[in-house]
Specification:
Strand content: 15-25%
Strand order of the largest sheet: 4-3-2-5-6-9-7
Distance between the termini: 66 Å
Radius of gyration: 21 Å
Structural class: alpha/beta
Number of helices: 12
Largest sheet: 7 strands, mixed
Order of helices and strands: HEHEHEHEHEHEHHEEEHHHH
Length: 290
């Protein structure tokens, strides 16, 4: 079986099937064997592991995953790629291809059924337009996940790791910090893809926290507060929360909660740490139920 991780092998498969790249699916296939080996190495995959791959494309990374893992489930949204995957992965008996939008797949019951509910590893070369919904979906659905090793746009990787005060700091940064420990494993040049994207990428690994790093009584409320405070970045935290359709607090309640966590009335959401958002959420919850 020929590995696909080269420009010539990728071109051969694309020509054989007259495959047309779909812009709407953000398709960019990896054509660098070193990078592929590094990603699978970074994910520390062994024969004990069940791996969920999101967006296998023509199966380039899937081949490496099948050789390293015990079992692989690859979820691909583009039905035109399914016959290609059945061909390129025909030699492996430990892979299952699902033709669906990963946001609609019940990954929790998949892990339950295929891996007896034990934590799974997720590996993906994610289309940039859908990175945040996929990551948030995986975390919020309480899927048993050990780690997520993903290729993302470099600036998205930066956003996941950044702290208060940076222009990249936002709801995604806080969500990632709440659920996982984020570490950039390698940077990947745009020239390693076909077709070549306009931006460089990075492989980032998110290792799930065993225990949340902050004490928060109502996770859902905290994330509503976080979203509201970044929806209107130019506004003060008070106005951001007061204008949110998701929240139902008076201006007085919000001001009082901000003061109780020791912050000035004029503060903006982007200045708060995860711990401070947790404290603010706990204060506001108290006001609703006191």
């Amino acid at each position: 079986m020929a590995y696909l991780g080269s420009p010539s092998a990728t071109k051969e498969v694309i020509n054989k099937y007259s495959f047309a790249f779909q812009k709407k699916f953000g398709q960019n296939f990896l054509i660098d064997a070193n990078i592929l080996e590094n990603i699978v190495g970074a994910a520390e995959i062994s024969k004990e592991d069940f791996v969920l791959e999101i967006g296998p494309g023509i199966g380039t990374m899937t081949q490496y995953l099948c050789e390293a893992a015990g079992q692989v489930v690859a979820v691909e949204i583009d039905k035109m790629l399914i016959p290609i995957l059945q061909d390129t992965l025909s030699e492996y008996d430990n892979v299952e291809i699902i033709n669906q939008d990963v946001l609609k797949v019940d990954i929790k019951s998949l892990a339950e059924e295929k891996n007896q509910g034990k934590p799974i590893k997720v590996v993906a070369n994610l289309p940039y337009y859908i990175t945040t919904p996929i990551i948030m979906g995986l975390f919020e659905s309480k899927v048993p996940i050990e780690s997520i090793t993903i290729m993302v746009q470099k600036e998205v990787a930066d956003r996941m790791q950044t702290g208060p005060g940076s222009k990249d700091y936002g709801a995604l940064s806080l969500a990632v910090q709440y659920y996982a420990d984020a570490k950039v494993m390698l940077n990947v040049s745009a020239s390693c893809f076909m077709p070549r994207p306009n931006v460089d990428s990075a492989v980032i690994q998110l290792t799930r926290h065993r225990k949340a790093p902050v004490d928060v009584e109502d996770e859902k409320l905290m994330f509503q507060i976080i979203r509201a405070s970044f929806n209107q970045r130019r506004k003060t935290l008070v106005n951001g929360l007061k204008n949110s359709l998701e929240l139902d607090f008076s201006k007085e309640e919000i001001l009082s909660a901000i003061q109780e966590i020791g912050k000035p009335d004029t503060i903006r959401g982007e200045a708060l740490t995860l711990e401070e958002f947790a404290m603010l959420s706990n204060q506001l919850k108290k006001k609703k139920f006191s």
